[in-house]
Design goal:
Length: 468
């Protein structure tokens, strides 16, 4: 029998070996401290998870006021999508005038932004919103030439953040919220915002529907904080591995399943505040990346020598929370069952990491290096029906969450797209082929095939008792 300790399995500089303040016990020498899963290094807060603990910066300093003013103008003018049916001459002219103003802006310096992550995040949010307003108020027959006053600083800022120069999930959700009512404060600081005390800072359409679409994801992030804490506690117990630890892990996994069911409820509740027709026709088109541009136009960043290549739009798949659940439960590599998902699906899952804040990418990378994964622990333990049932209930809850996601996609994208295709075919039978294009997500994915593939492989990850 090996006497090797769990700590012996880790390299000396591994993040689990670094002493950190435990939220209850303080630093314990010689103790593998998985509370670093919520460490500052990963920008994961113990109160708000992947969202910042305080509302993101809502305005840049005066030096960059021209950017803020340009975004304000776009929202106040209620600029309309170029593909809006019945677009009026007045609406077209308003967009033309605004785009001309953007082209005439000076190229503002960005060096002083690089001293602050908060400033960089706000600048990325503002500039990408301006860019998407610029692109999607252009007629589809026009080339996409992003003017230097936007492209040059945006590419520079994106380089510092290690994010693509395009609207991402973090721009729409993580760093685009505020509170409605003042929060209570205790000796540890402000309490996390209540799920009903959130509003969005900026939107493209100016509709409550768009705000509720963003806030559904924000509420999922906040409710998911407890899931992150359960992961941490479970990892602590995995390194002990005795009978008491097994009982605790069993309880933690059952609780995790309950939380994921709460996430599913929040996801489905988006229907209460966001109308599918409004979303599909007046909100979703603003998000499109280059690979879901309806005219398949190339985006040219003027004044930029090396043109960006990662330009997919925002997607819920860019949330580190759901990826963390996959990693923790051993579903992330997609090889937990014979065959796994297709190489294309695996590539798409990994591609989502590019669009996450870099600290969150690091969190997922570190989480995946845990030398005692929970799935391996469950499969290698002597038969324990309660532990197995708890693990399977957690996997099943993730599968059901993905069922709910597919349902939302069907309501908000697939059904409206089908109606739009029928109307197109009735109005112009010659447009039949154009209406048969593969339905893609705003992130450029083959939407239906991808979501069902990942969902089905999650279901197959359930461990049958006979395998014990």
């Amino acid at each position: 029998m090996s006497s090797q300790q769990p700590s012996d399995m880790l390299p000396p500089d591994h993040f689990l070996l670094q002493p950190r303040q435990d939220f209850l016990l303080g630093v314990q020498e010689g103790h593998i401290d998985t509370s670093t899963l919520a460490a500052h290094d990963f920008d994961v807060d113990t109160r708000t998870g992947f969202m910042p603990p305080d509302p993101p910066l809502s305005r840049l300093p005066a030096q960059w006021e021209l950017w803020e003013a340009a975004l304000d103008s776009a929202m106040q003018k209620r600029l309309q999508l170029a593909v809006k049916p019945g677009l009026t001459t007045e609406e077209k002219n308003s967009s033309v005038s605004w785009r001309e103003h953007v082209r005439q802006l000076p190229v503002l310096p960005t060096s002083e932004l690089t001293h602050s992550e908060l400033l960089l995040r706000r600048a990325h949010h503002v500039l990408t919103f301006i860019m998407h307003f610029y692109i999607y108020t252009l007629p589809l027959s026009s080339s996409v030439l992003i003017p230097e006053p936007i492209s040059v600083p945006l590419v520079a800022i994106s380089s510092h953040l290690q994010l693509p120069p395009v609207v991402t999930y973090s721009d729409n959700v993580l760093y685009n919220w505020d509170i409605i009512r003042p929060r209570a404060q205790n000796e540890l600081g402000f309490e996390p915002p209540a799920l009903d005390n959130l509003r969005s800072q900026d939107t493209f359409s100016g509709t409550i529907d768009e705000q509720e679409f963003y806030l559904a994801s924000a509420r999922i992030e906040l409710r998911g904080v407890e899931a992150l804490e359960l992961m941490r506690a479970t990892m602590d117990e995995l390194f002990v591995g005795d009978e008491i630890a097994i009982r605790r892990i069993t309880a933690y996994l059952h609780k995790l399943a309950s939380i994921v069911h709460d996430l599913q409820t929040i996801l489905l509740d988006v229907r209460k505040g966001c109308d599918p027709y409004t979303f599909y026709h007046f909100i979703r088109p603003w998000f499109r990346g280059v690979d879901s541009d309806p005219a398949r136009r190339k985006w040219v960043f003027e004044g930029v020598e090396e043109q960006p290549t990662h330009l997919s739009g925002p997607s819920a798949g860019q949330s580190a929370l759901i990826h963390a659940l996959d990693v923790f439960l051993g579903l992330d590599n997609c090889n937990v069952v014979e065959g796994g998902v297709t190489p294309d699906q695996r590539t798409l899952l990994r591609k989502m990491h590019i669009y996450m804040p870099r600290h969150h990418r690091n969190f997922l990378r570190h989480l995946s290096t845990n030398p005692r994964p929970v799935r391996t622990f469950v499969t290698q333990m002597k038969p324990d029906a309660e532990l197995l049932d708890a693990y399977n209930s957690a996997v099943q809850s993730v599968k059901e969450f993905r069922d709910a996601h597919i349902k939302i996609v069907a309501i908000y994208i697939i059904a409206p797209a089908a109606r739009e295709r029928m109307e197109l075919e009735r109005a112009n039978p010659g447009a039949l082929d154009a209406g048969k294009q593969v339905l893609k997500g705003t992130g450029g994915t083959d939407l239906v095939r991808f979501l069902k593939g990942v969902r089905d492989k999650t279901a197959e990850a359930v461990i049958e008792p006979t395998l014990q």
